[in-house]
């Protein structure tokens, strides 16, 4: 199963009032994240659920169409509660691009492109008791969880399905192609994943081709 957990929810966001200061009591972790970002790439894949699903009475649905409907087509990417995914958020830099991936739905796959318009800062949902992503162990003076702001760039020219990506991944494992080590298949549960330049370019090239 490649659905991955729900880690995107923007019904309670407050972009205007959000602090841009990243509070982190562990400088080693920050520098490690930065180095990790350099070694990885400038490209990402970010999963969100396009279909309604209630979690603690709150709908966690957030599709690329929902992002397009936001003011300035911009939203904070909150609700990530996996340490590795959080570290990837912290490694993101302004203007880096990410694929917006629809997960936990009938037809998972890549729907469009977004860019990072605000680097990591504390995720406000960790402190909201009525939020499904509330974390009572996280403290205001040392928040555990971060988020970034993303802005809609464009829809893919065609929806690139998980099944199609998987076909290429399997073929590339045998031939040494660009998707041979893609995190989507080696680390399925991660809602935020790095992409290499080769992976990003290959997936973009699929837009121009008929589904294989």
TrEMBL record:
Superkingdom classification of source: Eukaryota
Pfam families: EVE
Cited function: Specifically binds 5-hydroxymethylcytosine (5hmC), suggesting that it acts as a specific reader of 5hmC.
CDD domains recorded: EVE (cd21133)
UniProt keywords, alphabetically: Nucleus, Phosphoprotein
Chain intervals with Polar residues compositional bias: 21-34
Protein name (database record): Thymocyte nuclear protein 1
Signal peptide, first to last residue: none
InterPro entries listed in its UniProt record: 5hmC_binding (IPR052181), EVE_domain (IPR002740), PUA-like_sf (IPR015947), THYN1-like_EVE (IPR047197)
Gene this chain is encoded by: Thyn1
GO cellular component, one term: nucleus
Domain called EVE: residue spans: 42-205
